[in-house]
Amino acid sequence: MMAPGGYVDGDHGDHGDHGDYIDRVQDQWQGIFPDVSSEPAGIIARVRRLAQLIQLQSDSVLMSCGIGRAEFDILALLTRTGRPMTPSELASDLLTSPAGTTKRINKLVDARLVTRESNPQDGRGALIRLTPKGQETILPVLRSVSDFEAKLTGFMSPEDRIDLTTLLRSLLTHVEAAER
């Protein structure tokens, strides 16, 4: 329940040593604009900050495996779908621009991790297919990423991980539906 000042009941803005970066930001905003609720920002800002921090750390994991984020995302998508995909499908699933996706594909073709073939359903289009070298490359990288992610969430109880997954799924489903 919302308390005066925009805080959730039980959270009175004095986070001491127990608060996080977002608590401090919310405290600053509440000092400037006490009549504006910062509760929603507390959720969204944490999701954004977590995404940024996790991406920075996981990018380091990927680089230690000799692959960049852009290449990993395409290889992982092709691996998990188990089928060739058009550049448009890749761009749509990865939320990237067509031009950016083409640049990524070209780099992967040059590295012989994927092939670009004519699309039999659309003579003007292409299909991007994982090569055996791409398949060999992705498995150790996936293991490294999985180990990294397990370490990140390992402090949480299994129940907390399930609860957090459920809450994040609900938020993501809502946001994705609003995009349609």
Automatic annotation (TrEMBL):
Organism whose genome encodes this protein: Arthrobacter methylotrophus
Entries under PANTHER family matching the protein: TRANSCRIPTIONAL REGULATOR, MARR FAMILY (PTHR33164), TRANSCRIPTIONAL REGULATORY PROTEIN (PTHR33164:SF104)
Database matches in Gene3D superfamilies: Winged helix-like DNA-binding domain superfamily/Winged helix DNA-binding domain
SUPFAM superfamilies the record matches: Winged helix' DNA-binding domain (SSF46785)
Domain HTH marR-type intervals: 40-173
InterPro entries: ArsR-like_HTH, HTH_MarR-typ, MarR/SlyA-like, WH-like_DNA-bd_sf, WH_DNA-bd_sf
Protein's recorded name: MarR family winged helix-turn-helix transcriptional regulator
